[in-house]
Amino acid sequence: MDLNLKATELRLGLPGSDEPADQLQSSSSHVKNNKRSCSEIDGSCQKQESGAPAQKAQVVGWPPVRSYRKNVMEQQKKPDSDGSGFVKVSMDGAPYLRKIDLKLYKNYFDLLKALENMFKCTIGVYSEREGYNGSEYAPTYEDKDGDWMLVGDVPWDMFITSCKRLRIMKGSEAKGLGCL
Amino acid sequence: MAYSFPEEVLEHVFSFLSSDKDRNAVSLVCKSWYEIERWCRRRIFVGNCYAVSPGEAAFRGFQPRAGGLGRLRVPVDRGDVGAYPLLEEIKLKRMVVTDECLELISKSFKNFKVLVLSSCEGFTTDGLASIAANCRHLRELDLRESEVEDLSGHWLSHFPDNCTSLVSLNMSCLGSEVSFSALERLVARSPNLRTLRLNRAVPLEKLANLIRRAPQLVELGTGAYSAEIRSDILLNLTEAFSACKQLKGLSGFWDVVPAYLPAMYSVCSGITSLNLSYATIQSFDLVKLVTQCRNLQRLWVLDYIEDSGLEALASSCKDLQELRVFPSDPFGAEPNVSLTEQGLVSVSEGCPKLQSVLYFCRQMSNAALISIAKNRPKMVRFRLCIIEPRAPDYLTLEPLDAGFGAIVENCKELRRLSLSGLLTDRVFKYIGTHAKKLEMLSIAFAGDSDLGLHHVLSGCESLRKLEIRDCPFGDKALLANAAKLETMRSLWMSSCSVSYGACKLLGQKMPTLNVEVIDERGPPDSRPDSCPVERLYVYRMVAGRRVDMPGFVWTMDDEDSGLRFS
């Protein structure tokens, strides 16, 4: 490689150095990326990566997505917009809604018991074939796609990430498939 | 000067100067011009806080402080505050601003009208309350993408009942719910309101009420765009939108429920700017909306739109000038959507006015880039981010030199370029040869040697900002082109091969440049001179070196010690 820098009059060479400097190819994984010194390609003053599920080894600050954008996208993945596990619960006929924190419960049994307690009702036991047959109530939830689903069909972990709000149906609507 | 204009005459003349650049130049001519200028200065814009120092005449009284980002410091001393009595506008980008600052601004400048804080931080909603309460003639409050500590939504209620001057309100970055009735009343009594960008906490069910009170809106940012699917809400919203005959820009759209998108169809034909970049909806729904916006000039969208959606866009939106496609899952190992280079090629074929592109994708080819270059020779901004660093042309496995080479060769008006993918020194040779109007260049994981950097610095005549990360560029090219740096606004290099010794030399030889080494491993002189620095930031400054750096920033200056700590 011939730089031919002597041709440029503005050469400022380090004393005694005609060799190229050591090529230290770093992928910067050791460099923290703090929120300062504005460079858009470094991720535009990002905070440290936190909570982002790393699905592969990440190069810090790449791709250059702003931390503001990252935060917003993270928030939208969660069930409720305030970032906690709180979801609204409505009960047909009740004058006001309640809120519960889904993160407090470990399984459907605990959740349903809590709902029964809160609304003074009996929801009963789930079965795949019959749903909550026999009960006057059917617990339903709105998922990420905006569809209303019966509580209990999917594994618990999948449920808490996709549940946006709960509605306890009552009366004939609640009888569901059994009375079609 | 024996004869000169009386001050009042000069002041009158200067008051016609609206450009910030002209203002700054005028204030540097001589002391008396500086004094006269500041008396009638109405606006302050700080885009790069590092270039502002205590001495810099144009910004006297606004001292950037330590803490990484420049901190806005409005001096408490009344004398200094009196320095800009007519100040009406402050626009800041990426700076630290405190509540005390905001309070002082709100109380000191009687005519204060415009506050724009872009990607700033350091303040809370209490600071906003001061602005709301005290700025009697406030026209614009824009917090775009700032990180505000959200204590409560109560700040909005501080706008007094007789405040009717609001033209633009952007609170989209805030988390807390504001009092809806206060917001409604504020909107209702602001007949000049043109821009309203709500935050996510404003529910969709209530959006119609707000819009109804402001049918003159030109730009609207919705809150969360989701609600239980109810026909009364949909009807209400549809009617409200249909009354907005002047609406040109839409944004917001968090948590979109597609069933509510048709509420906007009546305004689509007038829409020129659409920001769907937070809308996590699928291609099908995006296309239905976008293809109705026949006059669309600017679209920001997530990659959920996919190639098929971009093709539909290209067929419907012939006025499109700017396209930004953001990644929905940038850190996923596998692609989650079917968005490739083909989408961008379609848009470049179908949209004759396309001049500004930001595109995140996972594969690219030279053929596609050449195609895009030939289709759109009037391209002005081209930013491509291929998610995997050093990804080659996926068809030929070659570097993407030829593709980007075609871009710079064909697009003679190109002012901004961001590169990605596998690139050798050759692409920089093309850039240096052809990109004569290029002002800003971003480079990452590219190049083979110093020659690459040398081509850019010696060839790009219009270059103002250069930012580089993870490239094998080192001392030789930097030092050989040191004089070039004086003609540029700034150079940023991180994780490259620039040695501490070279930084010192640069600092010594170039007194008009601020050469800053940012290194978290501790003082650079605790390591050998040949050791590369983590980050280097070089910028020209009118008024001397910064003294307010945080502990991990060192300035290379012209003293023998070569090093000055903050």
TrEMBL record, chain A:
Per the record, the major location class is: nucleus
Q: Which UniProt keywords apply?
A: Auxin signaling pathway, Nucleus, Repressor, Transcription, Transcription regulation
Q: Where is this region: Disordered?
A: 10-57
Q: Which domain of life is it from?
A: Eukaryota
- Compartments where found: Nucleus
What positions does the domain PB1 occupy? Answer: 84-171
SUPFAM superfamilies according to UniProt? CAD & PB1 domains
| Sequence similarity | Belongs to the Aux/IAA family.
Q: How does it assemble?
A: Homodimers and heterodimers.
| Biological role | Aux/IAA proteins are short-lived transcriptional factors that function as repressors of early auxin response genes at low auxin concentrations.
Q: This chain belongs to which protein, by name?
A: Auxin-responsive protein
Look up and give the organism this protein is from. Rehmannia glutinosa
TrEMBL record, chain B:
InterPro entries named among the record's database cross-references: COI1_F-box, F-box-like_dom_sf, F-box_dom, Leu-rich_rpt, Leu-rich_rpt_Cys-con_subtyp, LRR_dom_sf
Task: Tell me which CDD domains the record gives.
Answer: F-box_AtTIR1-like
| Domain of life per record | Eukaryota
Mind telling me which SUPFAM superfamilies this protein's record contains?
F-box domain, RNI-like
F-box domain location: 5-46
Q: What is this protein called?
A: F-box domain-containing protein
